[in-house]
Amino acid sequence: MQPRTDFVLRLTAEELAGVAALTAGVSGVNETEVSQEDAVVAAIEFALTRLIDDYEVPDPDARSQVQVARDELRAAWIRGGSSL
Q1: Cα–Cα distances in Å, from 36 out to 16, 70, 79?
Q2: What are the tens digits of pLDDT across the range 40-55?
Q3: How far apart are CA 34 and CA 54, in angstroms?
Q4: How far apart are the two ends of the chain, measured CA to CA in Å?
Q5: Residues 46-49: contacts with CB within 8 Å, 24+ apart?
Q6: pLDDT in single tens digits along all 84 residues of the chain
Q7: Residue 55's closest CA among 66, 68, 45, 44?
């Protein structure tokens, strides 16, 4: 298992409600309960994919960073089927 790093994120009540809804939605799509952390990682992977597939990131260095991050996230995928 890869080492993990703690990440503190301060959210508003509305943002927390969004994370709860995201978790419920990803759990529904995957037909199995997923953690909030898994749901957020799935959303990050989805956002990176959208940036690559649906938007033209104008800065080539930023576009490359997005592509590499998405590919590395997928290569080391430890979140099971928690993807969108």
Answers
A1: 10, 19, 11
A2: 988 999 999 999 999 9
A3: 27
A4: 23
A5: 46/83, 46/84, 48/73
A6: 567 788 899 999 999 999 999 999 999 988 889 999 889 988 999 999 999 999 988 999 999 999 999 998 888 776 555 666
A7: 66
**Identity (one letter) of the amino acid at 64?**
S
Q: Which residue has the tokens 């994120």?
A: 9
d(CA 28, CA 53): 24
Distance CA 6, CA 53 (A): 30
The pTM is what?
0.81
